[in-house]
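#struct-help
A.M.: can someone run this one for me? Single chain, 508 residues.
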Amino acid sequence: MKRTAIAFSVSLLAALPAAALAQAGHDTHHDPQPPVQADQTPATAAGAMAAMPGMPEQCRIMMQGMPSECMTAMQQMMQGGMMQGMMATPDAAPGGENRPDFTRAYVDTMDAMHGPMMEGVMADDPDTAFVRGMIPHHQGAIDMARIVQQHGDDPQTKAWAEQIIAAQEREIAEMEAWLKEKGSPEGIDFGQTGGTVWSADEGGSSISAIDLGTGTVTTVPIPVAPHNVDLTPDGRFLLAVGTPASGDHGSEGHGHDGDAAGLLVMLDPQDLSKPAVTVEIGAHPAHVVADTQGRAYASLSGTDEVAVVDLANASVIERIETGAYPHGLRLSPDGTELYVANVEDGSVSVIDTASLTEAARIPVGTAPVQVGFTPDGSRVYVSLRDENRVAVIDTATREVTGRIEVGPSPIQMIVTPDGRQVYVANQGTEAAPNDTVSVIDTATGEVAKTLKTAAGAHGVSVSADGAFVFVTNIADDSVSVIDVARQEVVGSVPVGDRPNGIVHGPSN
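D.P.: on it. Structure tokens below:
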């Protein structure tokens, strides 16, 4: 990694326990120098630092605009001339090729620390930014301590090194536990699972993107209050549907204004800040899914129909009548059928995607909200909000073959890629939001486990590898992360206001 002198100075001081931790007010270290007085001119400090040997030109420019408080802190860290001989890489400095092994080891440690520290402090929350920055800082101190244990001769420095290793390892464990409890993706071990999770923050008219690789959460405003999101199979578009007005989207998430104009928003999943393409689709869209033919299907709760959108032309090409108040919808694994849950007439519409017509309407129970296919397409699970049950449809006969008791007011659900489990989010009511997810064993047709998430469990998505399930908590402004193998909630990630729909997409 290419270093600037400023970054190198900050990182080096950060790894030296006396200097950096004194700056942070750390209670296990002591400031070896008195603080710089407030009347010292930052410009003077900037000039002195900019004149140091080996200072890159871009750093000299940066220092001219550096705030006074930053310069004061930097001047404190520079006291004693500690950094004078360390501003260049070992090989770049005169005689660098002859630097001893321990010097190279120290500098390599500093170099490895830069990126994670800088990445960590970029978190939106100041507390999280501090902790994420301090973890690699502490690891740098540990690595330096091990170098002196290997190369040093003085018993005192080795004793300090031992103390530092023990203290910093303990604090790293504490900070990682704090991140996990607070809800940073950095505190969750995703293993080989990568990609991004997007939540539709209906209350904030925004999308939150959780990057599972970097552990960052980015929330970006969009032109609608999104009720649901989906990723096109080719990964080209992130689709969101909702109304442009903020409106009242209560905790139950289904009290929509039928007269509200609705939009489909086409976003770049790699950069949500890019201008979005919007398509007027009809009265109060609820959910959206995309097929491999470049089409999107959006349920329109206000007009009892599904709008079919040609994504290439950004236009509605067909409208298909459904039952009353269509809501959740999903495509069959082979893409030949679209199942749509009709909340107000207790049915599921079966749409033939070739003819774009309703082929059947299946009675299922009271207030069906969402559907979920098994990977082989043989069964469809339907959440029955007002029955606290999930209905099971045999797709060959188009009949309900069973009903399974779950938690209060089940909303969305998803079947794992191996077809073994169904995760059902039990939202409860606005007055009494629920915080559980029912895990159905598809072999037995029974709930095998109930997991506690957070208030208002609503949207559900599963990672492409089936390792994790993600649940939006609409009353808690968070996304719960469930480890499928362990059957445990392993973390909670803060997102935007009132997250509703959710989708996981792989890394590009």
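A.M.: thanks! Confidence is low (pLDDT under 50) at residues 1-46, 52-56, 77-89, 247-258.
D.P.: also worth noting: The chain has eight helices and 28 strands.
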